[in-house]
Write a structure and sequence with these properties.
By secondary structure, this protein is α/β, with parallel strands linked by helices. It has helices at residues 24-41, 94-103, 116-122, 138-144, 167-182, 184-193, 212-223, 231-238, 242-253, 257-275, 280-286, 292-303, 307-314; strands spanning 12-18, 46-52, 58-59, 65-66, 70-71, 77-83, 107-112, 130-131, 149-150, 155-158, 161-164, 201-202, 208-209. Keywords: DNA-binding, Transcription, Transcription regulation. This is HTH-type transcriptional regulator CdhR. One of its GO terms (molecular function) is DNA-binding transcription factor activity.
Length: 315
């Protein structure tokens, strides 16, 4: 699988620390892209376990109960994701603070999701770091923790401390991590699965998404898989020169428009091969190839096997 960037493939282990009142939306936006990355890559890239301060079920804001895999004291890993969401003020006692401080010996990176930044700051784990929080709490957070450099960003990565402003931003953050760890080709596939064209996430000191021109180009590509547009036409429609679009897309995605467009079309072909009984000829047409042999050549170059070989393997 072409990555578009060089990246390690080592398993990363996440602990997701839940508190009563956590947001189902935030949890799903965090874990589901990781699950999708594992599925689409055919590898175990990410592993996660749900944690709590003690091994009892944790209840979300909407009443969903989650049975934790372990207590925080018994867990370790690469990254601890702290997710209190609603009612976070009630969870900021000495027990939480002591548990988070002790966890610094067992987790390399700490992530405050939604209002998790507040609990990390109370434990002193954000002192001297740039951080954000759910924007409804931003003013109070700034006043309460002057030793933290507060930023109005969707997410902030500052060394081994990561903070995030809410559920939708959690999706953005995880998409960024997938692209950073395993390449933008995989991030693009995950974005396709969740039906978002805003699939490229960049980070430079703070956080942000790919340029609007790249996102418009991706949307045009997604809308025109069966009858592909030319790259000059895509550039014209997004209001950029072909050279400028090429440069911007390489910066955001690690690949130029032609390569990205081909990947989108071949991802569609791979999905149809694995999930339907359509003939290879019909799939070729739906993916914008004039004949099956052209699809087969491109497919083999991209994925290392032919469409027929993939179909045989899937059955």
């Amino acid at each position: 699988m072409q990555k578009w960037t060089k990246s390690p493939a080592a398993l990363q282990r996440f602990g997701v620390l839940l508190f009563d009142g956590f947001s189902n939306h935030c949890l799903a936006n965090t874990v589901e892209p990781l699950r999708a990355a594992n599925t689409l890559s055919g590898q175990r890239l990410y592993d996660w376990q749900f944690l709590s301060l003690d091994p009892r079920p944790v209840t979300s804001s909407s009443g969903l109960q989650v049975a934790p895999h372990a207590a925080l004291t018994d867990a370790d890993g690469d990254m601890l994701l702290v997710m209190p969401s609603y009612g976070f003020q009630a969870h900021g006692g000495w027990r939480t603070q002591a548990g988070l401080r002790a966890a610094t010996r067992r987790f390399r990176t700490f992530v405050g999701l939604d209002t998790g930044s507040w609990l990390l700051a109370q434990a002193g784990l954000l002192n001297g770091h740039r951080a954000t929080i759910h924007w409804e709490e931003l003013t109070a957070f700034t006043e309460r923790f002057p030793e933290v450099e507060t930023c109005r960003e969707r997410y902030v990565i500052d060394g081994d401390r990561i903070t995030c402003s809410g559920a939708m931003a959690a999706f953005d953050l995880v998409m960024h991590l997938i692209g950073q760890d395993h390449g933008q080709a995989l991030a693009l596939e995950v974005a396709q699965l969740f039906m978002t064209s805003d699939s490229a996430r960049s980070h430079s000191g703070g956080a942000g998404s790919a340029s609007s021109h790249v996102n418009k180009a991706l949307a045009l590509m997604q809308e025109n898989l069966e009858t592909p547009l030319t790259i000059p036409e895509i550039a014209r429609r997004v209001g950029r020169s072909q050279k400028a679009l090429e440069s911007r897309m390489r910066a955001d995605l690690g690949a130029g428009p032609a390569k990205v467009y081909r990947r989108l079309r071949l991802n569609l072909a791979r999905k149809l091969i694995g999930e339907t009984d359509l003939s290879i000829a019909e799939i070729a047409l739906r993916a914008g190839y004039e004949d099956p042999s052209a699809l087969t050549r491109a497919f083999r170059a991209e994925f290392g096997l032919s469409p027929r070989a993939l179909r045989s393997r899937a059955r």
